[in-house]
Design brief:
The complex is a heterodimer of chains A (367) and B (513).
Chain A: H1 3-7, H2 10-14, H3 23-50, H4 55-67, H5 70-95, H6 103-120, H7 126-155, H8 159-179, H9 213-230, H10 232-242, H11 244-249, H12 254-281, H13 292-302, H14 307-322, H15 324-331, H16 337-353
Helix pairs in contact in A: 3-4, 3-16, 4-5, 4-14, 4-15, 5-6, 5-9, 5-12, 5-13, 5-14, 6-7, 6-8, 6-12, 6-13, 7-8, 7-12, 9-10, 9-12, 9-14, 10-12, 13-14, 13-16
Chain B: E1 16-25, E2 28-38, E3 43-47, H1 54-62, E4 69-74, E5 77-79, H2 84-89, E6 92-95, H3 107-113, H4 124-137, H5 153-166, E7 171-175, H6 183-198, E8 203-207, H7 211-217, E9 220-225, E10 228-234, H8 240-248, E11 267-277, E12 283-293, E13 297-301, H9 308-316, E14 323-328, E15 331-332, H10 337-343, E16 345-348, H11 352-355, H12 363-367, E17 378-379, E18 383-384, H13 386-399, H14 416-428, E19 435-439, H15 447-463, E20 466-471, H16 474-480, E21 483-488, E22 491-496, H17 503-510
Parallel strand pairs in B: 3-8, 3-9, 6-7, 7-8, 13-20, 13-21, 16-19, 19-20
Antiparallel strand pairs in B: 1-2, 1-4, 4-5, 9-10, 11-12, 11-14, 14-15, 17-18, 21-22
Helix pairs in contact in B: 14-15
Classes of the chains: A mainly alpha (367), B alpha/beta (513).
Chain lengths: 367, 513
């Protein structure tokens, strides 16, 4: 490193010569989450043993169901798309220092708004329908999380609790709408909204089963990464998240930046809701609240709230979710088993967060 | 090992001696073969600059650290103190710089709960009886039923000392106990302890920076410099010059930039009727009117907690004003980024890591806080160029000799002095400042760093910068300020110039009488 900077450094002149090793801190961000997932695998294996199943066989089955064939990988990607988008709902405010877990609510709000917009313009061209749905989904989800921001900045309401509770409100509003104003009388067993015309839904990618939502997810994650790492907006957000007093000293409009970030976060989850309606369900109903929001929280934490790793982690978790059925069919394990796995991963990842900076090896200077 | 109840512990102070004590942290030697002797019934001062190793040394006595070499001799026997409980057993107690009382509990509760052997069920009737007996012998009286949070700083410090006496400590270590007190309160507290020492009930080891206290109360001194023994002697045989020479080691570089005589320029920063609240919503700053002109340093003196922190926070945009106006160059100023840039207002706050840096961001990014959204770092109105940040920072790091491994090291990993230098580089490096607001800029820094920061401030003043200097160090204010104001209970109560300043009068106004 810079000779000027180290020449006066007492640490450099005292003991053995030390050199800065810049890749070591970066390695820490990889080794710790991967190690945490390994620990979670071992714990889950132990759980399988208590159920009288061979853990290795279970792992092999999960791998087969997630990534084993072209068909299963497509299945995985279909689940990964909404995860990428909902993860950003936690990841973006996290850079600001807020812990927001209202992903499910924002997804539902975005899905409902997108459905309403799509139905309003359903007679126009597919491109117009999809554009309107996308815009409405972003606004619906965005405003939902902005509400959390308002409560936090103007009334000092804890953002984690308010966003969690808003999830239930969003689901209740959804149920009200599909049972009342938006209800399609022909949906008897499962109250739903009127359907979006099938020829105006999001198309599939080529001859695969994967829909266009995956492209949305990847693009939005890349945009979020660029925004946080390479723009003045991201720089400001990181200042606020790192030390709000320093941000105020630098004259940053903390409240405004906070509300904008909340809106962007909610908008990302709103797109996930729009994609679920426009590409999968074709209508709004209680299937919207399928748990992608909560799984997105997990993705955001494992990816340490960075846009690029979210794409990878969402794909992995999408695979795990896709393999839920195989455990039931092949091993007669209950459906919730995969949630046990997911929960274990989350818990161990949170634990590993407390280990950053504890290992000398990962410091910039070698031991 | 069982801890004997206080009554069985020594009734008289025990002679304590350190013999060639050495303490290392990694390769860094914090204490190098230090010897020190405190005979029973003496008042001993431990002197030294910040970072000389005083705190480490007393922490070795208290059992927070274990010495690597050397002996701790108590009453003629070499002893090992592995924890503060062991220290307690030998009747050694310490009063810290910061308060350790539970604010919501009464004085009586604080005292009883400080005992290591507080029983599971407290019989308050007996305890109160015991406390009343104890207070009869105490050097100062404090109302036992007042919650500690409602006590003034001086009262709190008295309770801290009472706590040690209540625990039957016979050897008291006081770590800058008067830094939160007015001079009158400091004299009262130390005077009463001095009486206890004279009566042979106590030995005291006092860490201090204030020569005045040394001459008024102490019998002997030991001086440390950069972790080494730098001298000792009887106070009666020494002059202040001798002590200063021991502390500074004759390394004082007389490179302080001289204040150039200059005409007072036009008004740069004007405060009119400014009011602000403290965190608990009570008023802290009350109707402050102040005008600072170009090319002058206005100093604000005061005992901490009299509203100066809140005043600076309002000017820094960290706290809303509840009344009054702030104007810079005749225009309303509310500390937004655009206004700060337009009027070139820069800040050097106290505790820079807490107030002016993001510990997790890199040194380079922290240095770019004022300039990341403008060319050459900010591109096309919204992008940040990382190479440009590094280049910009590298130049300032070299110029301000910030000791860091690389531009990409998190600033939280740097030492306090280097964090301060990095902030100084950011705020004064571009040399465009027109208004500089600074609070305790040298708090906790070593002598060389202090000198360098003082010269930077004076240089800025000579360039025509309007400087507001809020400080708890009167010497610093007298050396740098053109005008000196005293703040007390949130109001500016007295104005003088360093040339006419009289310490007693200033102290009188600081105490709010």
């Amino acid at each position: 490193m810079s000779a000027v900077a180290t020449a006066h450094d007492p640490a450099a002149t005292r003991g053995a010569p030390r050199t800065a090793v810049r890749w070591r801190p970066a390695l820490e961000a990889v080794v710790l989450p991967v190690g945490a997932v390994l620990v979670a695998l071992i714990l889950f294996g132990a759980f399988c043993l208590t159920q009288g199943r061979n853990p290795l066989a279970v792992f092999a089955a999960i791998y087969q169901a997630a990534f084993g064939s072209g068909y299963s990988f497509q299945n995985t990607l279909v689940r990964a798309a909404p995860l990428m988008l909902t993860a950003l709902c936690t990841a973006l405010p996290a850079r600001l220092g807020l812990v927001i877990i209202g992903n499910e609510g924002a997804l539902v709000a975005g899905g409902v708004a997108a459905t309403a917009a799509g139905l309003l313009v359903s007679t126009t061209s597919p491109l117009v329908v999809i554009s309107c749905m996308l815009l409405a989904g972003m606004i619906g989800g965005g405003l939902w999380i902005t509400l959390v921001g308002f409560l936090f900045y103007f009334r000092s309401v804890n953002e984690t609790i308010s966003s969690l509770l808003l999830n239930y409100i969003a689901i209740a509003v959804l149920n009200h709408l599909v049972n009342g104003p938006m209800r399609d009388p022909s949906s008897l067993n499962k109250p739903s909204s009127f359907p979006i015309p099938e020829d105006k839904m999001l198309p599939l990618l080529g001859s695969t089963n994967v829909h266009f939502g995956l492209i949305f997810g990847i693009i939005v994650c890349l945009l979020a990464w660029g925004l946080m790492e390479h723009t003045t907006f991201g720089f400001k957000v990181r200042m606020i998240g790192g030390n709000i007093r320093a941000a105020r000293l630098a004259g940053l409009p903390v409240t405004r930046l906070g509300l904008i970030t909340c809106f962007l976060a909610g908008a990302a989850a709103g797109i996930a809701g729009m994609v679920e309606v426009a590409a999968v369900q074709g209508r709004a109903n209680e299937s919207l609240a399928a748990g992608y929001g909560y799984a997105g929280i997990l993705v955001a934490f494992v990816a340490r709230h960075r846009g690029l790793p979210i794409i990878l982690v969402a794909t992995l978790l999408g695979g795990i979710l896709a393999s839920g059925g195989i455990l039931q069919r092949q091993f007669q394990l209950p459906d919730a088993t995969i949630l046990v796995f997911q929960g274990l991963v989350f818990l161990v990842i949170l634990l590993s967060e407390s280990l950053y900076g504890k290992f000398k090896f990962f410091k910039e200077t070698g031991a | 090992m069982l801890i004997p109840p206080p009554a069985e512990r020594p009734l008289q102070p025990l002679p304590l001696e350190l013999v060639k004590l050495t303490k290392r942290f990694g390769a860094f030697v914090a204490n190098d073969q230090i010897s020190l002797k405190v005979p029973p019934g003496t008042f001993h001062a431990l002197l030294g600059e910040n970072g000389a190793g005083k705190s480490t040394l007393v922490k070795c006595i208290m059992g927070y650290h274990q010495a690597d070499e050397g002996d701790l001799v108590i009453d003629g026997h070499s002893r090992e103190i592995r924890s503060p409980y062991d220290a307690y057993q030998f009747g050694i107690g310490m009063v810290y710089q910061h308060f350790t009382l539970v604010p919501a509990m009464t004085v009586a509760e604080n005292l009883v709960l400080s005992r290591p052997n507080t029983p599971g069920i407290i019989r308050w009737k007996e305890e109160r009886e015991h406390l009343r007996e104890f207070m009869k012998t105490a050097p100062f009286q404090v109302d036992l039923d007042t919650p500690a949070g409602q006590l003034a700083a001086g009262q709190k410090q008295k309770v801290e000392i009472l706590k040690q006496l209540y625990l039957n400590s016979r050897f008291l270590i006081l770590d800058e106990p008067t830094s939160v007190l007015t001079p009158a309160e400091a004299d009262e507290v130390l005077g009463l302890i001095r009486d206890k020492v004279k009566a042979g009930h106590l030995s005291v080891l006092l860490i201090t920076h204030k020569f005045r206290e040394v001459f008024a109360f102490c019998d002997e001194i030991t001086v440390l410099r950069r972790g080494k023994f730098a001298g000792a002697g009887k106070v009666a045989d020494l002059r202040a010059d001798d002590m200063a020479a021991m502390m500074m080691g004759g390394q004082r570089e007389a490179r302080v930039v001289r204040k150039l005589p200059r005409e007072r320029g036009p008004a740069a920063l004007e405060l009119k009727g400014l009011c602000a609240n403290q965190d608990n919503g009570l008023p802290a700053v009350n109707q402050v009117n102040l005008t600072i002109h170009e090319g002058e340093v206005v100093g604000i003196a005061g005992v901490s907690g009299n509203g100066q922190r809140e005043l600076v926070e309002v000017l820094a945009g960290q706290r809303p004003a509840t009344g009054g106006t702030v104007q810079v160059h005749g225009q309303a100023y509310s500390a937004t980024r655009a206004e700060a840039f337009q009027h070139k207002v820069f800040l050097l706050p106290e505790e820079p890591l807490r107030n002016a840096c993001v510990p997790g961001m890199t040194v380079a990014e922290n240095i770019a806080f004022r300039s990341f959204d403008r060319p050459p770092i900010g591109r096309a109105g919204c992008f940040v160029s990382r190479p440009a940040i590094r280049k910009f920072a590298q130049e300032l790091i070299t110029r301000f000799s910030v000791k860091t491994r690389s531009t990409e090291t998190p600033i939280g990993d740097l030492s306090g002095g280097n964090v301060q230098r990095a902030v100084l580089a950011r705020e004064l490096g571009p040399g465009t400042a027109q208004v500089l607001i600074t609070a305790n800029p040298c708090f906790g820094l070593d002598f060389a760093a202090v000198e360098s920061i003082h010269s930077q401030i004076t240089e800025a003043r000579n360039r025509g910068v309007a400087v507001l200097l809020v400080s708890e160090d009167l010497d610093e204010l007298l050396a740098l300020a053109d005008r000196l104001l005293v703040i007390s209970h949130g109001e500016l109560v007295y104005e003088t110039t360093p040339a006419q300043a009289e310490i007693n009068t200033i102290g009188h106004h600081m105490a709010g009488h």
